[in-house]
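Entry 14. Ran structure prediction on the chain below.
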Amino acid sequence: MHELLLLLVFSATWAVTLPGTVLLQWKWLVPLYAFWLVPAGGVPLVWGLCIAGASLLVYGLLPSGARRRAHRNVSEALQVFTIRRKLYRYCALIFPLVVYPILGTGTTRWVMAGIAAGVVAVDLLRTRVPPLRHRLARTFAAIAKQEEGRGLSRTSLFLAALGIVALFPGRYPGPAAMVILVLGDAWAVLAGSRLSTPAIGRGKSLGGTVAAFCAGWMGAYAALGTLYAPLT
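Output, structure tokens:
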């Protein structure tokens, strides 16, 4: 049950991030998810192979025109700054979904906190060292906002938040909070910008807030139930 719910959350997040490319989930998302479940969710390897093979077969049977349109839609979506930035943020999911189950809670929380502290330190140094600032600006031009050129970047603040929640006591709060932060941040912007709902604050919408809450908590519940223990 948790595995299916998590796949549903991933699928919906793919759809809201890369609209018009849902068909590609059969080529990339489902096979990757199936193989991820083998070590993480305890699924037998033969089942992972069967699911991945069936998914690739379905994709291969799709009309060639539909497959080409889906690939073209990906290329067009990557031209949008907000989408590139959210795809970059999704990389943080590797900590609650991969690193936590492999290294364990104790090791991962200090690794994550150390990475966050290091990134914030480099970002603070960037604001005071022009050569470093110019170099990092060129490197991250595709995902950095213009107003982040002088002060701390929002990505650094985002990682700092992840580092703080990684230190939460107990086995579950750290991974759960990371999933909520990453998915909630993406859904608030991407879903909120597409839903015609009332504004509830500066740059915030009711639709985006509700979408962020639902996606974040559903994703955290499903991820913890799949990776750590059956939750009741």
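The mean pLDDT is 85. Will compare against last week's run tomorrow.
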